[in-house]
C-alpha cells in the first residue's frame, strides 16, 4: 500500500514579476516500509520536493496523499499538526536546541502534541528512544558535549518520539565523517527493517544513496527514473557529475 | 500545548541565556523599583504636605451662631446666643465625619504679670480638644489643661510663645500666675510656636483657658447679659443662677439702677442656656468637609428645633481656599508621580522589545525547528509572549522588593517620610505585565510569522 502518492506536483515560485517553476509535474509513489533515497544536484528541486513531502510547504498544483489523506490543501496549522504526528525530520546540521539536554531535545515535539502525555510518560518514551540510539548514558549532556554522530543520533531519537510513519532525512550525513555516516545510515536501515518505518533520505551523495532500497533521481524539476528496480544497478549511469569526496564535508 | 509546558519552555529558553534575561529584566526592575520608591516617597511627602496644610486649618469648620436683631436693628453675624457646649458634644458624638470639636469663648482684655501688661490678640476659653482641632498638639513646655479643669472652672491657662516673650521676657512661665482682669491664672503649659496665620495675624499671641473659667470668671457673663439686647437688664438673675459671680465680683459697675424684685417679676427674663461664641470642628479629612457640614447642619437643626422651611440660627464656614490648595497640591503630586512612573516603565518596555527582537532573530533556526516538529504559529507566538511576560513579571516582583527596600532606606537614612502604598504595588505588577504583553507582542508576532523553510535555512 502506498504511503506517499504524488500526482503531478508543480511548484512555482514568484520572484518579483518572474515565475520560476521549480517542480514540473512530479509523480511519485512510495510504499509503506520503503527506504528511498532522493537524489539530485543542487537546483534540481529536490529541496522543494522534500519540503512538500514534509508538509512544510504546499504545492502550487497537484495532489499529495499521505497515508491516504489529501494533504496538499491543508492550512498551515493543519500541516503543523500533521508534521507533528506523522513526519519525523532529520537535518544536515542536526538542529538541536543549544544548552538543552539530549533528553529535553528528544522530548521537544511532545510539547506540540495535542494528546496529553504526562511528564513521566514523555520522559520514559524519550529515554527508551535514547537507549535505542545508544545514548541513554548521555541523556543529560548538552549538544555541545556530544560528537556530531551522537548529535545526529539524538536528532533521530527526536524524530521518532511521536512514532511517525515517515522519516525525512535531509542530507543526514552531510556533516559527518565516513565512519559515523555509516553508523547513522546503518541505523536508518535497522529502523526501516525492524520498525517498518518509511524513510526518505535526501542526498546528493551516491555512497549514501546506495544504502537505500530504491533511488529516485530528480533533475530540473522532474523525476528522471522514478521506478528503478534496485539502487545499485544505476551506479554506473549516475556517477558522473558527483564527487564521492563530498561525503566528508 | 498545555499552559505549564508553555511556561516551562519559556523558562528554559530564558535559562539558556541567563545573563541576557537578567539584563533585560533589569530595565523593568529599575523601572518598577523607581515607581514604587517614587510613589512611596511621594505619598509620604504629599501626606506630610497635607498634614502641614491641614495644620493651618484646612479641615476646620467654624460654626457661628446666627444673627440677633432687636426692633429691626441687626447686631451682626454671630450675635445670637444659640450655640451651647452641649451642641459641641453632640456634634462630636453624632457626626462621624467630624474628628474633633471644641467650643470657643473669646475675650479680649488686659493680662498682667508682675509689672508688665499685655493685651493678647485672643483669650480663648475652650476644652483640651481645641488643640486637636487646630492640629496644635505639641506643647513646648508643660501640659494642656484637662477636661477636669474645664468641669471645675479651674483657674489654669496655657500661653502662646508671644505671651511668654511679652509678659515673661522669655523665662519659663510654668507655675507662674498671671492676672486676667482680676482673676489669677496659673500657667500650666506653653504652646509651640505656630507663627502667623494666612491673614498675617499672630497665632502665638494667645492664652488658652477652660471655657468655663473664661466665661464665668473672666467675662463674668452669665445667662442674661451675653446678649446685647438684654445686657442692660442687670445681672441679678445671673448671680442667682451662677454662684461664682458672687465670689469673683468682676462686674463691679452698674451703670443702670438695679431693678427691684417687683420690676423683675413684672418683666421676666427668659431663662437661657449657657452659650458659647463659636464651635470649632475638624473634619476627618479634607474630602469629608462637605459631608461634615451636612451632618452638623442636620444635627443642629434638629437640636435647635428648626422647622424644615425655617432659616437656620447658625452658620458653618470652612476654609474653601485652603481646601482647594490642598486638593490641587495632592493632585499635582499624584500626576507628577504618575508621569515619572509611566516614562520609566516605557523605557523598560522598549528594552524588553529590543532584546526580544534580537532573540527572535538569533533563534530563527530554533523557531524553524519548532515549526517543523509541529509548532503552530500560535504556539510560537505564545512562547515568545510568555517569555516577555515572565521577564516583566519577574522584573516587577524584584523591582517591588527593591523599591520597598529603597524607600525604607530613604526613611532610615534621610528621614524622609514615606508611606507604603499597596496601590503602587498592585499597579506596578499590572503595568509590568501589560508592558510585557504590549512590548513582547510584536517580536512574538514576528517570530510566529516566520516561514519554517526559510527559518530552518537561516544562518
Task: Write a structural description.
The complex is a heterodimer of chains A (249) and B (459). Chain A has 249 residues and is α/β, with parallel strands linked by helices. Chain A has a domain at 2-93 and 158-238: P-loop containing nucleotide triphosphate hydrolases (Rossmann fold, 3-Layer(aba) Sandwich). Chain A contains 8 helices and 10 strands. A 6-stranded mixed sheet of chain A has the order 6-7-8-3-9-10. Chain A is globular. In chain A, 45% of the residues are buried. Mean pLDDT of chain A is 85; it is low at 226-249. Chain B has helices at 3-15, 18-58, 85-94, 129-133, 147-152, 161-168, 211-218, 236-241, 244-247, 261-266, 289-303, 320-362, 364-372, 377-414, 422-448, 452-457; strands at residues 60-65, 69-70, 73-74, 98-107, 111-113, 116-118, 122-126, 139-142, 156-159, 177-180, 183-191, 206-210, 278-283, 314-318. Chain B has 2 domains: 3-52 and 326-457, no CATH class; 101-283, no CATH class. In chain B, the strands form 2 sheets. In chain B, strands 1, 4, 5, 6, 7, 8, 9, 10, 11, 12, 13 and 14 form a 12-stranded mixed sheet that branches. Chain B has a two-stranded antiparallel sheet with strand order 2-3. In chain B, α1 (3-15) packs across α14 and α12 crosses α14 (377-414). Chain B is an alpha+beta fold and 459 residues long. The longest helix of chain B is centred in the last third of the chain and has 43 residues, at 320-362. Chain B has 16 helices and 14 strands. Chain A binds chain B through residues 51, 54, 56-57, 76-77, 80-81, 83-85, 89, 91, 95, 97-100, 104, 108-109, 111-113, 116, 158, 162, and chain B through 1-2, 5, 9, 12, 16-17, 365-366, 368-379, 452-453, 456.
Amino acid at each position: 500500500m502506498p504511503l506517499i502518492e504524488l500526482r503531478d506536483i508543480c511548484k512555482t515560485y514568484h520572484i518579483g514579476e518572474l515565475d520560476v517553476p521549480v517542480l514540473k509535474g512530479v509523480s511519485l509513489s512510495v510504499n509503506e516500509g520503503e527506504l528511498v533515497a532522493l537524489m539530485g544536484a543542487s537546483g534540481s528541486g529536490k529541496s522543494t520536493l522534500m519540503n512538500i513531502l514534509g508538509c512544510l510547504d504546499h504545492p502550487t498544483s497537484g495532489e499529495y496523499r499521505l497515508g491516504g489523506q489529501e494533504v496538499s490543501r491543508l492550512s498551515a496549522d493543519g500541516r503543523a499538526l500533521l508534521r507533528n504526528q506523522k513526519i519525523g525530520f532529520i537535518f544536515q546540521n542536526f538542529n538541536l536546541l543549544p544548552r538543552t539536554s539530549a533528553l529535553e531535545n528528544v522530548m521537544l515535539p511532545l510539547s506540540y502534541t495535542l494528546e496529553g502525555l504526562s511528564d513521566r510518560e514523555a520522559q520514559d518514551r524519550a529515554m527508551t528512544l535514547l537507549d535505542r540510539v545508544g545514548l541513554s548514558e548521555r541523556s543529560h549532556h548538552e549538544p555541545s558535549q556530544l560528537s556530531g554522530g551522537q548529535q545526529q543520533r539524538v536528532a533521530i531519537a527526536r524524530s521518532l518520539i511521536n512514532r511517525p510513519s515517515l522519516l525525512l532525512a535531509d542530507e543526514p550525513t552531510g556533516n559527518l565523517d565516513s565512519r559515523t555516516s555509516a553508523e547513522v545510515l546503518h541505523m536508518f536501515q535497522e529502523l526501516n527493517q525492524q520498525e517498518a518505518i518509511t524513510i526518505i533520505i535526501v542526498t546528493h551523495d551516491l555512497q549514501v544513496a546506495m544504502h537505500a532500497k530504491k533511488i529516485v533521481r530528480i533533475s530540473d524539476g522532474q523525476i528522471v527514473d522514478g521506478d528503478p528496480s534496485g539502487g545499485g544497478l544505476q551506479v554506473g549511469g549516475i556517477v558522473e557529475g558527483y564527487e564521492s569526496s563530498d561525503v566528508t564535508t | 500545548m498545555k499552559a505549564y509546558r508553555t511556561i516551562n519552555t519559556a523558562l528554559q529558553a530564558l535559562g539558556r541565556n541567563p545573563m541576557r534575561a537578567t539584563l533585560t529584566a533589569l530595565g523593568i526592575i529599575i523601572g518598577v523599583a523607581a515607581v514604587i520608591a517614587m510613589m512611596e516617597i511621594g505619598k509620604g511627602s504629599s501626606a506630610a504636605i497635607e498634614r502641614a496644610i491641614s495644620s493651618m486649618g484646612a479641615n476646620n469648620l467654624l460654626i457661628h451662631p446666627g444673627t440677633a436683631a432687636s426692633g429691626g436693628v441687626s447686631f451682626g453675624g454671630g450675635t445670637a446666643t444659640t450655640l451651647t457646649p452641649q451642641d459641641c458634644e453632640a456634634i462630636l458624638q453624632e457626626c462621624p465625619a467630624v474628628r474633633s470639636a471644641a467650643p470657643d469663648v473669646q475675650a479680649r482684655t488686659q493680662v498682667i504679670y508682675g509689672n508688665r501688661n499685655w493685651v493678647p490678640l485672643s483669650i480663648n476659653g475652650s476644652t483640651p480638644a481645641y488643640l486637636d482641632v487646630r492640629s496644635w498638639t505639641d506643647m513646648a513646655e508643660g501640659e494642656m489643661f484637662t477636661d477636669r479643669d474645664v468641669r471645675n472652672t479651674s483657674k489654669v491657662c496655657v500661653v502662646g510663645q508671644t505671651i511668654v516673650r511679652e509678659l515673661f521676657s522669655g523665662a519659663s512661665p510654668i507655675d507662674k500666675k498671671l492676672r486676667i482682669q482680676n482673676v489669677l491664672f496659673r500657667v500650666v503649659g506653653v504652646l509651640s510656636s505656630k507663627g502667623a496665620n494666612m491673614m498675617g495675624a499672630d497665632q502665638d499671641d494667645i492664652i488658652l483657658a477652660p471655657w468655663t473659667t473664661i466665661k464665668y470668671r473672666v467675662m463674668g457673663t452669665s445667662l442674661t447679659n451675653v446678649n446685647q439686647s438684654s445686657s442692660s437688664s442687670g445681672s441679678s438673675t445671673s448671680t442667682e443662677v451662677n454662684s461664682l459671680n458672687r465670689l469673683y465680683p468682676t462686674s463691679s459697675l452698674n451703670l443702670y439702677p438695679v431693678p427691684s424684685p417687683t420690676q423683675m417679676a413684672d418683666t421676666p427674663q427668659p431663662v437661657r442656656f449657657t452659650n458659647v461664641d463659636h464651635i470649632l470642628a475638624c473634619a476627618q479629612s479634607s474630602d469629608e468637609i462637605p459631608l461634615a457640614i451636612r451632618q452638623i447642619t442636620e444635627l443642629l437643626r434638629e437640636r435647635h428645633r428648626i422647622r424644615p422651611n425655617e432659616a437656620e440660627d447658625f452658620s458653618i464656614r470652612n476654609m474653601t481656599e485652603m481646601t482647594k490648595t490642598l486638593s490641587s497640591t495632592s493632585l499635582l503630586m499624584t500626576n507628577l508621580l504618575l508621569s515619572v512612573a509611566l516614562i520609566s516603565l516605557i523605557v523598560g518596555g522598549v528594552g524588553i522589545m529590543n532584546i526580544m527582537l534580537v532573540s527572535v532573530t538569533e533563534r530563527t533556526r530554533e523557531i524553524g525547528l519548532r515549526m517543523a516538529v509541529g509548532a503552530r504559529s500560535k504556539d510560537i507566538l505564545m512562547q515568545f509572549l510568555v517569555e516577555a511576560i515572565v521577564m516583566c513579571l519577574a522584573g516587577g516582583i524584584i523591582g517591588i522588593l527593591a523599591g520597598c527596600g529603597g524607600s525604607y532606606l530613604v526613611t532610615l537614612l534621610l528621614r524622609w517620610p514615606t508611606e507604603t502604598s499597596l496601590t503602587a504595588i498592585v499597579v506596578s505588577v499590572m503595568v509590568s505585565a501589560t508592558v510585557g504583553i504590549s512590548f513582547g507582542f510584536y517580536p512574538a508576532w514576528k517570530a510566529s510569522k516566520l516561514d519554517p523553510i526559510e527559518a530552518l535555512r537561516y544562518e
